[in-house]
């Protein structure tokens, strides 16, 4: 019912056809060309969203120097993103995304079958992995797991270190946060790489 033309609109179309109109498509007409919702702006917005999934429409508008309305059109109707838990995610996964998800899940399953509980203890889900953390992981030559798009990032777990750190620092008093940071950094430097 909602997709039917109103009675008035039907009469208008009948009049147009009686006057010689032969097509139902819009007639070509002159209009101002789009200047904000363009391919380069869409590409740039997509790159910025991939870089920071928490970015806001206002921030994108300021970075792209276009209006908030144009950014909203670009993000929602051209890139087909929507906000979920304050993060931009695509409305639906494309076939390629589904294939990557399937491959990642299959790889994770094989890892679990090979290593069992030891594999589960070696990962922790996080919201974000900082650039410096990634660089450190590459330097240490740790194996990074592929994972499905828009799932929390996976990283080697350091939870087992907390118990050891806690027992080594037990009874110590610190005057400020800098003293704590320095002590923890020294503690990490003294440990051998086999601990990690």
What are the salient characteristics of this protein?
196 residues; mainly alpha; two-stranded antiparallel sheet; 9 helices; nucleic acid binding; Transposase-MT_Hybrid; RNaseH_sf; Mos1 transposase HTH domain-containing protein
Structure, explained:
This protein is mostly helical and 196 residues long. It has 3 domains: 36-92; 95-157, no CATH class; 160-195, no CATH class. It has helices at 7-18, 39-51, 57-64, 68-78, 95-115, 117-121, 131-139, 159-169, 177-190, and strands at 81-84, 87-90, 123-126, 153-156. A two-stranded antiparallel sheet has the order 1-2. Strands 3-4 form a two-stranded antiparallel ribbon. A hairpin with a 2-residue loop joins strand 1 and strand 2. The radius of gyration is 27 Å and the shape is elongated. The mean pLDDT is 78. This is Mos1 transposase HTH domain-containing protein. InterPro entries: RNaseH_sf, Transposase-MT_Hybrid. It comes from Cryptotermes secundus. One of its GO terms (molecular function) is nucleic acid binding.
Mean pLDDT equals 78
Major sheet strand order: 1-2
Low-confidence stretches: none
How much helical structure, as a percent, in the residues? 40-55%
Q: Please count the beta strands (DSSP E, at least 2 residues each).
A: 4
Percent in strands: 5-15%
| Backbone structural class | mainly alpha
GO molecular function: nucleic acid binding
Organism: Cryptotermes secundus
Protein name: Mos1 transposase HTH domain-containing protein
């Amino acid at each position: 019912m909602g997709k039917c033309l109103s009675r008035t609109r039907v009469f208008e179309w009948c009049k147009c056809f009686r006057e010689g109109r032969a097509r139902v498509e819009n007639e070509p007409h002159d209009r101002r060309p789009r200047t904000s919702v363009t391919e380069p702006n869409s590409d740039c917005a997509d790159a910025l969203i991939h870089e920071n999934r928490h970015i806001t429409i206002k921030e994108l508008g300021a970075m792209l120097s276009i209006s908030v309305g144009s950014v909203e059109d670009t993000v929602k109707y051209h890139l087909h993103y929507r906000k979920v838990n304050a993060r931009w995610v695509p409305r639906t996964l494309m076939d390629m995304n589904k294939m990557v998800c399937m491959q990642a899940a299959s790889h994770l399953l094989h890892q679990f079958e090979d290593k069992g509980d030891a594999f589960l203890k070696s990962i922790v889900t996080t919201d974000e992995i900082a650039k410096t953390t990634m660089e450190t992981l590459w330097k240490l030559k740790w194996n990074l797991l592929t994972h499905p798009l828009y799932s929390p990032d996976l990283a080697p777990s350091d939870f087992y270190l907390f118990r050891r750190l806690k027992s080594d620092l037990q009874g110590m008093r610190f005057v400020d946060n800098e003293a704590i940071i320095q002590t923890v950094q020294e503690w990490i430097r003294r440990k051998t790489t086999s601990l990690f």
